[in-house]
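Q&A FORM
Asked by: J.P.
Topic: structure of Outer membrane protein beta-barrel domain-containing protein

PROVIDED:
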Amino acid sequence: MKKFMLASTILWGFLPPSFASENFKNNIGLNLGYGQLTAKIQGEKREGDDFSGEIFYRRYVESKWGVELGYKAGFDGVNSILISQLDEIKDLSYSGPRLSLYGEYPLALGFNIYGKTGLTFYETTYKRKKDGLVSEVRDSNVGGELTTGLGWSYGHIGMHIEANYMRDSVISNKTVMFGLDIKF
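REPLIED BY: S.T.
REPLY: Here is the structure written out as tokens.
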């Protein structure tokens, strides 16, 4: 019996990672991205670039479908910072939670394509200069988000690249994000 257990343990260690990863129900990860941010503030349209980051937790309901809860934040990019010196609106940022449905389709060699759609609740913050006075403005809105991506995993570890579109009543954002995740 001991030999059987030892042989089973050794054999399990040599199984392909995709076979072993089928049983993971949880996933945590981190995304970093760069993209285009458009803001509509008090009737004025402001366009620029932005950096964004997010952390997320995903729970698989079935092997390829799940629910994802994340927290995302973004702020002005390099071009936006340079241009905002001439603008009345400065230091634009957003942050908040999101809730998404997630689905993936497996490809070969550990690759998969996936999509997410969900709701966001972001707080947008910026400084507005008017008549020589600077005031900080905060605005919270419910919006939507749509994402498609390509992922690769080996055992517990995964990497991905995704295209993300987010929109609410104040901002819209098109971002390319790179990320790492851990399945457990």
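FOLLOW-UP: The first strand starts at residue 26 and ends at 41.
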